[in-house]
Amino acid sequence: xxxxxxxxxxxxxxxxxxxxxxxxxxxxxxxxxxxxxxxxxxxxxxxxxxxxxxxxxxxxxxxxxxxxxxxxxxxxxxxxxxxxxxxxxxxxxxxxxxxxxxxxxxxxxxxxxxxxxxxxxxxxxxxxxxxxxxxxxxxxxxxxxxxxxxxxxxxxxxxxxxxxxxxxxxxxxxxxxxxxxxxxxxxxxxxxxxxxxxxxxxxxxxxxxxxxxxxxxxxxxxxxxxxxxxxxxxxxxxxxxxxxxxxxxxxxxxxxxxxxxxxxxxxxxxxxxxxxxxxxxxxxxxxxxxxxxxxxxxxxxxxxxx
Length: 306
Fold this sequence. Notes:
The chain has helices at residues 16-21, 39-43, 46-59, 62-79, 83-103, 125-140, 144-151, 170-182, 186-197, 209-227, 233-255, 261-276, 283-302; strands at 11-12, 109-119, 157-166, 201-208. By secondary structure, it is of the alpha+beta class. It has 2 domains: 11-120 and 155-199, no CATH class; 209-302, Four Helix Bundle (Hemerythrin (Met), subunit A). A 4-stranded antiparallel beta sheet has the order 1-2-3-4. The radius of gyration is 25 Å and the shape is elongated. The two termini are 29 Å apart.
């Protein structure tokens, strides 16, 4: 698992301190995303990326990841015409899988690795609306590729890629491979290992950066409401300004096409109600409702299948 970050690389798990200390270019993976000169913009989002990956790292199953590593070692041993070493490696694989299944025999997939790509742009609400307008004109003119180049740049998100091992199939293939090696069928054994490694599944979770920023700003408004003397006008204004900033972040997310119009209307109404209750005993109730709505909205964006 790669922990350091350099421009043009994917950010991997167990890397929180490195992430916050190193600059990352926008569209970090050159094999997937075109380069962009927004490194400064992306850098401010690195703590959010670190937090998300730390959460994912806690869900990774160490033994399953080690089983995959040993599978690759076994394949390498076969490529070097060393079946004895390959069998020893596969024995380790079986032991690791046994440990995983002992924890929960009903598990079908277990996460073994996580990485992240931060994709941002050096723009604002006006530039997004202008780009959308240009793209629409190009689509109307059936210039789809030109429109795609514009729309590809209208993204602001952290993409968390989680790779999982399929427990329903993996152990059986490993057992079959060992039998093939004992029978001297090395080419078939190698084919089995290549196939089982191809069974690894990678899913991507997308976290829109403006929505994450709105969540953080809303939390800061709550903190100020409960830790400052809101009888002072300047303190009250700070909370109101944070509410306005939350609204702006959501407007940007909406312009970028994350979610539906109905989702945002509920959130905008919640922000308005929150502003009307600053320094009253109703603030807590309105904040709870708004924060719950925002968290549920974010969850729908990240896990649309649910």
